[in-house]
Q: What sequence folds into this?
């Protein structure tokens, strides 16, 4: 369980985040949703430990980790463009972090992850020979073998083609469930956030606009911002799709 | 958009103008007589001043070379050489004439002491000597040398400088003195020790050693006697020493390159150098070359000596080989 | 797709002819000469040269001293570039490094040697301060220091460019993966830089191996191949065939180097995008690198400061009172001002014509479907390989007796060919980055191809053009090795005149002329940089 208590962040006089208070249960998938520049990436960096908060606390399983370094926290992240080492092949990227761990993971265990992500046929390929989806999976595998306490995903779908998006969404859901892994996703796409996660944290101009399940957000938008920018988009999409297929498909 | 087109046109036309200007400059300088010279800058200054005074300003260009460089050029290019006039060590001019017959006749009523030849006129004479920086000598606690051989003392390690015979005719004066005094065998050893002592201070130019002695980079050097006299008169802590091995001499001459009849101005200029400039050159290089010339007593070296046979390029090459042998 | 048109061919032909006559044919001719004794074709010249102890020694010496110098340069340059890109030292310090280290590039290499003599020699400034010479500057030591000073800017710029394109977020990944510092350094910096490090090493090696200016000034009696070549061609006894053979021998490491560079290319990989990530603060690291950077820049400044001390003191090293006498003397000497004007003419014409030729070549290569356009890449590769001295010598052989001999044109042509590669690649890169559909769009709007080039391509490549101009100008101003065989009395340049002044040991004149070159180059460089920056600013505002 991760608790964010009164997290604030400001650069000089500019307030980037103001009093963020949320609680994330273990094994949940949470999306951080908001327009660009709203502060969601900053929040991600604060959780990860890359950036410090100006005020507030982070509590993980009852322990205050506010002052702990990125390495000590043991969270991990998959970057938007995957950041795979270009000079290593897929397999070497996956096992990259293992060499630094005291507790050795057995070959079988690694293979389990590889199988789960269906990467066996691609292990000996160079990075530039992989497709976008394959790179994504390699990057996830590399992070998972480190057995992170929380998995952070930065815009995981934005670098992928349309068709593959849906399958990756399913994959992320199954990872979270299979490994009971708390997963935090940053996205700017309402559809993605609402269809992928258990709870969505919508941020606007550094403040929490709403935090709740997708259902709550759709049925009970808390304010004008949610209606205008989040729901309106989805409604237009729905309208367009209905027009294409006809109301009966609804 | 228009503006950049204009700019582009502007640049191109500027380039055209510059090109035209170069063309113009070249066409203009076609008339100039080109003088190749191995002389030191003091001598060149005298020649320039005299020529300018006599109304030849802008009608000539002097290009300096090391003796060996110029010699190599003469031997390799013959009459194809860029120069119209050459001033050079006399033995080199003689050898070049023998093998390439590249100079035209400039005989006149001038009476050189040394008999002379029809295609060249002597312009200056060089005398070799040792010189020292008295301050550095004292500082390093070294005795005042009397001979060239004294400079082979280990105390002079990296503190002595002399011109390289491979590049400079002044260097030859040193080698002549050593061979003449000590013979081939002992001479070889003296030279080898001297080379070891000089280390990096073996200069390609005849004026290199005096500069190094002047700045105190080294304590003693071998070069032209007059260089040391001048430095001493300037009030620098420099003194000249006539080595007992002998003050050997070399003359330099002027000659006109055969340009198939197009030598009128070149001949005039060569004559001016050999006659009008002579007064100034005699002051700088106090060695009498023509009948009736006189020099001051201080300029008469103590041990004036001459090599037994006529100096030729062949002999130079023999002595160069001797030097190289000592270098090993 | 854009179709080949007459105009393209019309531009292509003269460029092709230019390279044929000023690159290919002279080199082949020289190569042919190296196999001839009189009229007999033989390899005897090579046998003679290889049996010649002095040439072998010079070759070996060149190899040794260049190798050491390149190792030192590569390490120094890597650390400097690392300090600029991977530490959080103060941005002023970073700027200082970027400017200070590259400043010597504005001077001819022959000046480096004299500056060293006046710093480390028996009467050198540093020697005076310390009390006794630290080491003998002539020969091996001087060459190593000189080569390092000469090649450090090039290696530094190369590494800097490369590090700029390293994805800094890998540092973060590495930290998340709990890497130790050495493993992090290997995977995030060293391994990505490996190709560049190798490239920088080879490049500096070739530069040192083929440079003439530094051994000419500070070489002493330490034989290297460049001075040996000079001796063979302009020494007391001229050996044309030997000169040709030495040039070919000089080409061998250059060719090998270029081959190795292409192999090293495989070690390079491109990051798709360059993620910026804040570097982690690390006090000790930053302090150490700041100290190192400032030390390096100070050494460069101290060494080159002698250049400004000697000509303004009355009688170095006896009379240190300030005087402008020496400068006035130089200014008064018609001869010296004339060579300065000559240099200026050569540099300007080289830069203008050079930019035209490189731009046209790059344009034809990068943005037209012209047949045979790849030949320009080959030309660029050859010009990159051939040392300036070898190119100059091949001209001497080939144009001897022609009316081009002893003209400015032959010097300018030599410069344009010698320095072709870099501006060509600069232009090509810029052109390739531009939207490939512009020509077609313009054609649909009824513009002719040439009009498109003038109206669309040129305005968009302006900043690169300024940089190309600056590159050509500076190099034409400082080159010695490229033109040493080509200058005549009427076309004497400042850089070659320095060689001549050395003969008379007129060091003050040398330094005054060097200061002239430095100032001229500084003005041109700052001017070009200003125009580039100005242009970029205007573009930003208009956005």
A:
């Amino acid at each position: 369980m991760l608790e964010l208590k009164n997290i604030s962040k400001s650069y000089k006089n500019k307030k980037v985040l103001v009093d963020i208070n949320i609680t994330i249960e273990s094994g949940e998938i949470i999306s951080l949703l908001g327009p660009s520049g709203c502060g969601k990436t900053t929040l991600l960096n604060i959780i990860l430990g890359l950036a410090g908060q100006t005020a507030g606390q982070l509590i993980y399983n009852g322990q205050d980790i506010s002052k702990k370094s990125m390495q000590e926290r043991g969270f991990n992240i998959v970057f938007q463009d995957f950041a795979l080492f270009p000079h290593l092949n897929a397999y070497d990227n996956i096992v990259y972090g293992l060499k630094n761990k005291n507790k050795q993971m057995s070959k079988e265990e690694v293979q389990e992850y590889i199988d789960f992500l269906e990467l066996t046929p691609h292990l000996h390929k160079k990075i530039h020979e992989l497709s976008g989806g394959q790179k994504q999976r390699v990057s996830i595998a590399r992070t998972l073998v480190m057995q992170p306490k929380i998995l952070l995903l930065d815009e995981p779908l934005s670098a992928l083609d349309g068709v593959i998006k849906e399958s990756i969404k399913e994959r992320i859901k199954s990872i979270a469930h299979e490994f009971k892994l708390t997963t935090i996703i940053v996205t700017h796409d309402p559809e993605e956030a609402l269809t992928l996660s258990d709870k969505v944290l919508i941020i606007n101009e550094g403040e929490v606009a709403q935090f709740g399940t997708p259902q709550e957000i759709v049925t009970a938008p808390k304010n004008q911002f949610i209606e205008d920018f989040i729901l309106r988009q989805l409604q237009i999409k729905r309208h367009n799709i209905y027009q294409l297929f006809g109301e009966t498909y609804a | 958009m228009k503006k950049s087109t204009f700019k582009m046109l502007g640049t191109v036309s500027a380039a055209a103008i510059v090109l035209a200007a170069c063309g113009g400059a070249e066409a203009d300088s076609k008339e100039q007589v080109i003088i190749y010279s191995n002389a030191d800058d003091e001598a060149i200054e005298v020649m320039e001043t005299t020529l300018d005074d006599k109304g030849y300003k802008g009608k000539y260009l002097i290009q300096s070379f090391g003796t060996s460089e110029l010699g190599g050029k003469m031997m390799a290019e013959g009459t194809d050489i860029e120069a119209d006039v050459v001033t050079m060590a006399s033995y080199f001019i003689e050898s070049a004439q023998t093998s390439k017959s590249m100079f035209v006749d400039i005989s006149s009523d001038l009476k050189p002491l040394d008999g002379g030849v029809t295609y060249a006129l002597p312009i200056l004479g060089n005398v070799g000597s040792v010189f020292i920086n008295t301050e550095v000598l004292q500082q390093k606690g070294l005795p005042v040398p009397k001979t060239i051989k004294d400079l082979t003392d280990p105390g002079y390690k990296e503190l002595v400088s002399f011109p390289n015979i491979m590049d400079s005719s002044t260097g030859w004066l040193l080698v002549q003195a050593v061979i003449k005094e000590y013979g081939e065998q002992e001479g070889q050893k003296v030279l080898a020790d001297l080379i070891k002592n000089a280390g990096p201070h073996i200069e390609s130019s005849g004026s290199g050693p005096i500069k190094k002695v002047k700045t105190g980079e080294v304590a003693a050097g071998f070069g032209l006697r007059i260089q040391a006299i001048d430095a001493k008169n300037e009030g620098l802590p420099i003194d000249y020493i006539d080595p007992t091995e002998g003050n050997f001499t070399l003359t330099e001459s002027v000659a006109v390159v055969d340009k198939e009849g197009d030598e009128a101005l070149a001949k005039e200029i060569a004559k001016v150098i050999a006659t009008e400039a002579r007064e100034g050159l005699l002051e700088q290089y106090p060695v009498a070359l023509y009948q009736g010339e006189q020099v001051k007593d201080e300029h008469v070296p103590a041990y004036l000596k001459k090599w037994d046979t006529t100096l030729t390029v062949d002999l130079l090459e023999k002595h160069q080989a001797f030097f190289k042998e000592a270098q090993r | 797709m854009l179709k080949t048109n007459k105009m393209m061919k019309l531009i292509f032909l003269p460029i092709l002819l230019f390279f044929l006559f000023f690159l290919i044919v002279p080199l082949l001719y020289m190569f042919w000469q190296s196999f001839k004794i009189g009229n007999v074709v033989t390899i005897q010249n090579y046998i003679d040269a290889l049996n010649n102890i002095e040439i072998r020694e010079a070759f070996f010496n060149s190899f040794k001293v260049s190798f050491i110098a390149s190792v030192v340069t590569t390490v120094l340059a890597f650390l400097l570039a690392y300090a600029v890109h991977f530490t959080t030292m103060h941005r002023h310090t970073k700027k200082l490094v970027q400017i200070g280290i590259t400043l010597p590039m504005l001077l001819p290499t022959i000046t480096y040697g004299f500056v060293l003599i006046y710093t480390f020699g028996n009467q050198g400034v540093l020697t005076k301060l310390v009390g006794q010479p630290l080491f003998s500057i002539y020969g091996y030591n001087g060459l190593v220091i000189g080569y390092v000073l000469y090649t450090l800017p090039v290696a530094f710029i190369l590494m800097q460019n490369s590090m700029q394109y390293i994805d800094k977020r890998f540092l973060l990944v590495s930290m998340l993966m709990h890497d130790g510092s050495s493993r992090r350094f290997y995977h995030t910096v060293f391994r990505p830089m490996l190709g560049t490090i190798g490239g920088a090493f080879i490049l500096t090696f070739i530069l040192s191996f083929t440079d003439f200016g530094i051994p000419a000034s500070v070489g002493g009696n330490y034989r290297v191949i460049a001075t040996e070549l000079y001796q063979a061609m302009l020494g007391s006894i001229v050996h044309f065939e030997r000169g040709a053979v030495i040039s070919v021998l000089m080409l061998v490491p250059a060719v090998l180097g270029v081959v190795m560079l292409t192999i090293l290319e495989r070690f390079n990989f491109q990051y798709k995008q360059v993620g910026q990530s804040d570097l982690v603060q690390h006090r000790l690291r930053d302090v150490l690198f700041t100290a190192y950077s400032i030390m390096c820049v100070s050494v460069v400044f101290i060494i080159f400061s002698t250049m400004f001390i000697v000509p303004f003191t009355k009688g170095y090293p006896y009379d240190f009172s300030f005087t402008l006498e020496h400068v006035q003397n130089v200014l008064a000497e018609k001869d010296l001002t004339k060579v300065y004007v000559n240099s200026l003419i050569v540099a300007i014409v080289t830069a203008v014509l050079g930019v035209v030729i490189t731009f046209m070549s790059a344009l034809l290569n990068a943005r037209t479907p012209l047949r045979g356009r790849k030949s320009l890449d080959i030309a660029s590769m050859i010009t990159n390989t051939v040392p300036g001295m070898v190119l100059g010598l091949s001209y001497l052989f080939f144009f001897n007796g022609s009316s081009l001999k002893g003209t400015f044109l032959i010097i300018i042509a030599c410069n344009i060919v010698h320095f072709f590669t870099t501006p060509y690649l600069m232009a090509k890169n810029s052109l390739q980055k531009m939207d490939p559909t512009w020509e077609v769009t313009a054609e649909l709007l009824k513009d002719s191809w040439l009009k498109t080039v003038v109206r669309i391509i040129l305005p968009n490549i302006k900043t690169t053009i300024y940089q190309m101009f600056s590159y050509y100008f500076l190099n034409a101003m400082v080159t010695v090795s490229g033109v040493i065989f080509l200058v005549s009395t009427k076309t004497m340049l400042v850089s070659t005149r320095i060689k001549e002044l050395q003969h008379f040991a007129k060091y003050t004149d040398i330094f005054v002329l060097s200061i002239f070159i430095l100032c001229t180059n500084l003005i041109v460089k700052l001017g070009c940089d200003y125009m580039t920056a100005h242009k970029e600013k205007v573009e930003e505002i208009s956005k």
Summary: Chain B touches chain C through 56 residues (CB under 8 Å). Residues 1-29 of chain B have pLDDT under 50 and may be disordered.
